[in-house]
Amino acid sequence: MEAKTARDEAAASTAASITTADVTAQMASSATTYTDAQRKFILTANAEFRVKDVYQSALAIEDIVASQGGFVVRNDITAQTQSVQTRPRGDGKLTELAEYSLRGELIVRVPSDKTQGFLRAIVGQIDFLDHRSFEATDAQFDMLRQQLAALRGQEAQQEIGQAEQQGGRLDQRTEALQGRDVARAARDEAEVSQKEFEDKVAFSTIALSIYQTPRIRATEMVDVEAEFQRNSPGFFERLANSLRGGWYGLLDFVIALAPLWPLWVLLFVVVLVRFFRKRGSST
Fold first, then answer.
1. Alpha carbons 122 and 265: distance in angstroms, whole number
2. Phi, psi (deg, nearest 5) at residue 223
3. pLDDT tens for each residue of 98-144
4. Angle between the N-to-C axes of helices 170-202 and 140-165, in degrees from 0 to 180, rounded to the nearest 10
């Protein structure tokens, strides 16, 4: 029996090792490791996988990001309730059973040369890998385009400054000043765009979508309906309240008819006249 248990444990350990090795291989790609001294790449990656606990895995991934010299851009965790059932306990309490699932959305930035190391480091959090994709975008021409745009802005500013120094009419100098402001704005925008590209090249952007298997949440609640029934009045008290309500209803009816008293007087007179006429004719 002990030998069988040892074999089972060894088999489970071997299966876990194989699974971890498979996931490690799935999270690897040459797109995250390729380097070229003449080219600059913008690395992006996204993956969706199941974890054992969303909150713990999210914290663990944040720690891994920090250890790789990166930072977290986004960390959103939401709970979705699939179904809810309420069952009485018989002691004035209810048990609410809710099936729910957790999902987390993380966006992290890590140094591009540590992207592969980061992806391998989070393998321990993956229970099942649903999807992953990697992309390396050649950014050398975009960076060159931004550099040339910044250079054009500087040259334009210098040319406008030289034209301004040459003097001329007031309207010409005003036009030169406006052109110089436009050139400065174009130069600044080009420099910002260049910095953005350099940042994208220096740090890869990785989007992670994590989730866990559905779980059950049990919540103890007061059985409100049972409490109302238990504290409701008895039969005789309810009967007395009903009779009292009927008497007040009759009084309200009489009060509602009171404004029609001229009609009732007229009807009374008509009845008396008919009564005396009938009595006189009979005699």
1. 97
2. -80, 95
3. 888 999 999 999 999 999 899 999 999 999 999 889 888 876 666 66
4. 160
